Amino acid sequence: MQDLTRCVHHPAVSEDGYASLAVATHRASTIVYADAESFAQRKYRGFDGYTYGLHGTPTTRTLEAQLTGLHGGVRTILVPSGQAAVTAVMLSVLLPGDRVLIPDHVYGPVRYFCTDYLAPRGIDHLVYDPLIGGGIADLIDRRTKLVWVESPGSNTMEVQDVPAIVQAAKAKGALVGCDNTWATPLLFKPLAHGADFAIEALTKYIGGHSDLLMGSITVADIELREKIKLVLRDLGIGVSPDEAALALRGLETMGVRVAHMGRVSEDFAHRLLHSPVVDTVLHPALPSCPGHAVWARDFKGSTGVFSIVLKPGAEAALEPALTALQVFAIGASWGGTRSLIAPQAIAGARTATAWTHPGTVLRISIGLEDPDDLWRDLERLLRRLEPAAEAA
Known about the structure:
- By secondary structure, this protein is α/β, with parallel strands linked by helices.
- Helix content is about 35%, strand content about 15%.
- Helix 3 (about 60-70) packs parallel to helix 9 (about 240-270).
């Protein structure tokens, strides 16, 4: 064997005695086969076999299996983002002439996908009140193939009655998908409540360090998994094993991170009720939050994301007050180690229900900083807003 050949042919190395707690990162585009017959028969390996790097390596399969176990599903599919998880589900079950129902508090890009992509292709959507519960039965017609839920809503925190919505949908032959990113499978398991699809933006709590983009879809029926995998195969969509490795690492500490963030968020939510510039605190753990009774019934606890509504007039001083923050960062995502805060535009996005709060909504994501440092930073922010709120 000449040197140029040695450069590209790896020697066999014994793995006897080698054992690691870390999951190996298997990077691959090409999958090679032991013989010509294996290559010719590769299509029969199915979606659980290895045929090409785009369709999975042992690293991505490990993450899929771990998420499947957490959700109590039959299979999990990985996609490049949480938004891709939602759209992959919709593309797999909706055809021209069909309809999907989406809640009025849904993640904004999901609404854009319905209006900008599905509608021009003959797929209708209807926006519904997220607190409709079993009353959604009146909105489900013969065209309705999918009911989408997001509980709680990641900006306004309404908690949806998933079991009641599932019961109504199933009675009329519609599937149900749930964006479970706020709760993670540690605090709520949509499939256990009858949903067909549980999606997570792994970018958030499962990744946990603000350094990856990925989404997952866990299904309760293997046939649904096959439909989604066909769509992804035809579109050429896959995920990086390097990002899957980051998600696997983040998953190991998610339990302690979420427990800490949830405790701090609940503590802050109760304290913020007494702030002179806070009109409303939107946190599922508070009895005043829409859907609180459902949260108390179905969820095991809180995560770190909640919102506050400022009193009218406070927005006049908001920009410099946010810029002066020392511990919180200004950012649109959440679920990482750094605490974040971001203004949200709500009223203009609602179409089925009226948003009656006149003040600015601030979404807060609690990270892993010392709670005292976070509270002092938040207090300084609110004090800077007081003169503007009082003058309004």
